[in-house]
Amino acid sequence: MMGLIQKDNLVLRERVSELEAELTKRDLAIMELSTKVGELQTQTERDQDQGQRWQQLHEEWQSRNEMVRQAEQATRVALESAQSRLERLRSKIIQATFNVSGIKSLATEISDNHILEALQRIISERSDYYNQLKQKGVRVPPLQQSEIMLTKPKKAEKPPAERAAALVPGAGWTHQLAPRGGNHWPGPDQFFVPKRLQPHQDVPFKDHP
């Protein structure tokens, strides 16, 4: 009888040992799973943060893209306005240059070089006429700075449109010559222009073209 009890007790102890070993394994598995869950939670939080960051970057990119689009549109409008003003200025320069006496209107398109050459020719004639007046003893004010620069040696050339704009004659340069023997002559804000530039003006000097 005692042998059976000891045998059953031994079997129970072995069973308890097996259960304890199995429990230990399960505890280890639970710990591993808990660690894995923690890693997954950390990864999930990291992914969420990264997703939020990507969303923020996407919104910033959209905002910058909209700003660039608006800036491009504003630049395009400014460029069109500048081109329109430049074209109007060019048209006025053409009218002022090619509508003087002795120059026929051209049917073909006028290039910037043609405009510049015409302006240089007109101002050169103006300078020649100015020198003729000085040689005849007429008291005249000095030429404007733009015309003085035209007679100097050329430096680095600017674009044709800028050179043409710099050569446009200013206001206050026209004045009718006083009669021969008169005592009144133009003031410092007035100037004489060639007959070619004023078709209806009478010039008293017979030897002037």
Distinctive features:
2 domains, 0% strand, rod-shaped, CC-FHA_domain, coiled coil
Molecular structure report:
By secondary structure, this protein is an all-alpha fold. The chain folds into two domains: 1-98; 112-197. It has four helices and no strands. Mean pLDDT is 72; it is low at 164-209.
Give the class from helix and strand content and strand pairing.
mainly alpha
Mean pLDDT score: 72
Characterize the biggest β-sheet: none
Question: Rg from C-alpha positions?
Answer: 48 Å
**Structure summary, number of beta strands:** 0
Low-confidence stretches: 164-209
Keywords: Coiled coil
InterPro entries: CC-FHA_domain
Summary of the model, kept short:
Residues 173-209 are annotated as: Disordered. Residues 72-99 form a coiled coil. The chain is mainly alpha-helical and 209 residues long.
Fold blueprint:
Elements: H1 2-98, H2 112-135, H3 145-151, H4 160-166
Helix pairs in contact: 1-2, 2-4
